């Protein structure tokens, strides 16, 4: 058992950093996509709101694994993609495809959480702000967005954890992240339980840290204290 820890931990730590990098980039891009799609969903133009609805429906209604395969093994093999340097740079690398797939998937869920928060802001507060002479941008920045975030943040923070757990699927497209290294060690040592227990602890460490940060943000927003 001690020999396993001495051999496994350094290898899994290497995968841990890959997982962390994929997860954090995915969360960053998913947050931007989620906010953009939520704003589009609340737009009055039917084409704009319909496009955001279609995006949300497709990526929430299909498994992340299928999305990952379509991006890497589907789009990544098209001749058009090979001829475009930027697209080839994106789709030729498994880690970048994993970031894109997780960001698109998580962004769809985040957009619904943020949209719900935006729509929960009382119209009376917006009308009062407008009557005070605030512009539309000022109303959004000072009133609508802060109130929406208070409502959406619990669901948003839950999606952060799901995004990190989604990184484990990156190993299916030959990305050597935490789960990928765990599978390699398992095939070499045949100690399935012990290897994946260590991997699970490392995943737990990431998510506990994320949840702790989310808890601090929620306290700052007055969500948990009911302020």
TrEMBL record:
The keyword Membrane applies. The chain crosses the membrane at residues 20-40, 52-74, 191-217. Keywords: Cell inner membrane, Cell membrane, Membrane, Transmembrane, Transmembrane helix, Transport. Residues 16-210 form the ABC transmembrane type-1 domain. The keyword Membrane applies. It is found in: Cell inner membrane; Cell membrane. It holds the Pfam family BPD_transp_1. It is a multi-pass membrane protein. Belongs to the binding-protein-dependent transport system permease family. HisMQ subfamily. This is ABC transporter permease subunit. It comes from Castellaniella denitrificans. The lineage of its organism: Bacteria, Pseudomonadati, Pseudomonadota, Betaproteobacteria, Burkholderiales.
